[in-house]
Amino acid sequence: MDNALLEKLLAIFRDDTWIVHMFVVVLVTLTLDFVQKRVLDRAYERLSQNGNYWDDALIDAMRAPLRTLIWLIGLSYAVGIAHADEANALFELVPQLRDIGIIVTIAWFLARFIKRGEQSYIRQRVARGQAVDRTTTDAVAKLLRLSVVITAVLVILQTLGYSISGVLAFGGVGGIAVGFAAKDLLANFFGGLMIYLDRPFSVGDWVRSPDRDIEGTVEEIGWRLTKLRTFDLRPLYVPNSLFNNVIVENPSRMLNRRIFETVGIRYEDAGRMAAIVDDVRSMLEEHPEIDTDRTLIVNFTTFAASSLNFFIYTFTKTREWVKYHAVKQDVLLRVIEIVEQHGAECAFPTTTLHVASMPPPLDGEPGDGAAGANP
Questions:
Q1: Which distant-in-sequence residues (6+ apart) come within 8 Å of 84 by Cβ?
Q2: Which of 130, 148, 181 is the last residue of a domain?
């Protein structure tokens, strides 16, 4: 029985040799896939220790596309072997589909390499303690990926038999109609391009618009939308075209933070005002967190309703929001100490009521002691 079965299988292989060929092709494909995976894993493990992020990006970007390419070529050859033995209209499309698949795989690899390269560049700069312009890096990476996609589409059209010059000519004529139909999309695209060129803000900046209810930290600048994170941690998506028509304030690029406060003392402490103002000015000039190269003013300014006011106008060295408030608190506490050291007090709203003395009683009118007495 076993011999008969074996003879039958040998007869099948002898008559239908394409099955053997397909089996060999699939086996070779499996072997190549296994080998490339082991080789790339070992290469990535070794190259990740040399401190160069670019070769890591190349190996990491190559993994999935290379595996897809091996199986694509292997299966297309296997199908070609079956086509040689059995005619079928669908099999005739295999070479063309294989070429398109190869183009897509190469474009996929290039896009992955650009993305990994961008990430590696940022990590390398951060590891060295160098400044990173994330906005420019992101813009260049997106332009490169867009170029890869456009090139891949044109090559695919050429592979399908379309003339690229004809496609470009049609795009020039049809672009007018597309432009009118997608004017908002194009406005957002060019708005994003202007953000990349003018760079009014970058990723990580705190921005706000006095014209609109827009305020938050920039997380991502896309070609259509800019993603902000508000201070209550809500995501805010703003169309790029909006930034062409509104005023945008970028507090992240301020040089210093300002302390502008008014302090009032009592009217009875008027004689101590000059000494208090001088001591507060001296304190600010000696404070390690106050930028004395900027405007520094401490002057008596106002006769208020219930206080004599002097104002403090100065700038801190720090731009950090949290640290700024710590510095401001320290300055105000020192001002209170100076006021108290001079025996004065900070004023608060008060009202003084002056009551005139009672006039003497007229002749014939009873005095206080006769109030209520009978005449």
A1: 18
A2: 181
β-pair partners for 15? none
What is residue 232's three-state secondary structure? coil
Cα–Cα distance between 205 and 79 in angstroms, integer?
55
Cα distance from N-terminal residue to C-terminal residue, the chain: 154
| pLDDT tens digit sequence for 165-191 | 665 665 554 555 555 555 677 777 778
**Could you read off the pLDDT of 330-368 as tens digits, one per residue?**
999 999 999 999 999 998 877 777 777 666 666 665 555
**Is this prediction's pTM over 0.70?**
no
DSSP conformational letter for 216: E
- Exposure string of 69-99, with b = 16+ CB inside 10 Å and e = fewer, is bbbbbbbbbbbbbebeeeeeeeeeebeeebe
The SS3 of residue 374 is: coil
Structure tokens at 189: 């695209």
Q: What is the mean pLDDT of residues 126-155?
A: 79
pLDDT, position 299: 95
Residue 214 near residue 236, CB atoms below 8 Å: yes
Give CA–CA dist 119/344, Å, rounded.
60
Place of tokens 């699939």: 26
Mean pLDDT of 290-301: 94
Report which of 252, 297, 301 is spatially closest to residue 273, judged by C-alpha positions.
301
If one counts the domains in the chain, the total is: 3
CATH label of the domain that carries residue 297: 3.30.70.100
Q: Which of 220, 52, 58, 44 is nearest to 127 (CA)?
A: 52
